[in-house]
Design brief:
Length: 247
Amino acid sequence: MIEIKQLSKKYKGTDIFSVSDLDLCISEKDIFGLLGPNGAGKTTLISLLCSLIKPTSGSFVINGLTYKKNKNQLKQLIGIVPQEYALYPTLTAFENLMYFGSMYGLKGNKLKLKIKAALQTLGLSQFSNKKINTFSGGMKRRINLIASILHNPKVLFLDEPTVGVDVQSKNVIINYLKELNEKGTTIIYTSHHLNEAEAFCTKVAIIDHGRIITQGPPKSLISDQKNANNLEDVFLALTGHALRDHA
Ligand SMILES: Nc1ncnc2c1ncn2[C@@H]1O[C@H](COP(=O)(O)OP(=O)(O)OP(=O)(O)O)[C@@H](O)[C@H]1O
């Protein structure tokens, strides 16, 4: 269970809050989607929850643990799949995964077997000894995902895990995440693919200007919104059609 209370973040040198007084509860069984236009605050919220950045104010608890009191336990409890590839291009897939596993204190046969099983499930067994710089975007996304789950996290945060991948890779990734969730991992993910989120998530929150403007199961949000046939209709009705370009 994740409980977020009055969480706010204002980056140094800026005068706006990227996350503003945000309250949210995510249950252990959820596949929770954080949706919102560009610049809404999704990555900032995930970065706060992964303790990659510090809140300006407010707090959160993940499965009873807080970063201040339980830093090491929390690190073992969560997995992070960042938006950017966090892989070493000149190492092979297997070497990369051995390295990431060792960062969590894993080693030996146990780690090797875990890597082999994940590579198999994600369709990458035959590329195990190929260098990452020869991989397609979809293959790198799948390796990025494996790197984050080797320590069996109870809570997995993913920032746009299906961006830039083909339909085949996307299906493999989504099915794998569903499997992890069925085995007891809470999934929290950001995406701009609203059809995907509608089918995949048990709950979503639509975020804009650092605040949650609505949340709930996709079907409830659709039925509650006048003239909405899908999550995209809800999203546009609540966030508007204006472009969010800024520099
Ligand atoms: N390191 C930073 N320093 C200053 N401002 C930042 C920083 N990172 C993000 N921001 C600002 O915080 C706001 C929220 O950004 P964030 O990346 O969290 O949004 P997002 O919803 O993830 O967007 P996207 O969908 O484009 O990834 C934006 O206005 C952004 O410009």
